[in-house]
Design goal:
Layout (H helix, E strand, L loop, with lengths): L2 H9 L6 H12 L5 H14 L3 H14 L11 E2 L14 H11 L3 E2 L13 H7 L7
Parallel strand pairs: 1-2
Helix pairs in contact: 1-3, 2-4
Length: 135
């Protein structure tokens, strides 16, 4: 299945199968799909609404592409990742809270992305503070 075929499915309000979604997500995650088609795909699936199969497949592929990090004493580590998407241009509280936890002696593994709907995403804040975010 091509991304164009997937977009056509969404116009017909048809769901993708688990395997079809995995094919499309692998193409997107590997950079094979131009940004314009990725945007059309995301808008189409948002308008149609996500099925359980599509979410499951997308999650599996994103995990395939994720970077695994080995840390000492993982049971003593906390992640303060926010959910994002509130649409209110709010302050990035998850990153600020990571600094509070670290200042109190806690070990923090911070992950997150750039701003989409808020005034700042975790990556934006950390980059502005001079942190290397391209690990």
């Amino acid at each position: 299945m091509t991304i164009q075929e997937a977009i056509e499915c969404f116009f017909r309000r048809s769901d993708l199968s688990h395997e079809q979604m995995k094919i499309i997500m692998r193409a997107i995650m590997s950079g094979e799909v131009p940004p314009e088609l990725t945007a059309a795909f995301l808008v189409g699936i948002q308008v149609k609404g996500l099925s359980v199969e599509e979410v499951s497949a997308a999650t599996a592929v994103i995990r395939e592409f994720s970077m695994s990090v080995t840390v000492e004493r993982p049971d003593e580590l906390i992640d303060t990742c926010g959910t994002g998407g509130d649409g209110r241009k709010t302050f990035n509280i998850s990153t600020a809270s990571a600094f509070v936890v670290a200042a109190a002696g806690g070990r923090v593994a911070k992950h997150g992305g750039r701003s989409v709907t808020s005034s700042s995403g975790s990556a934006d804040v950390l980059e502005a503070l001079g942190a290397r975010i391209d690990l």
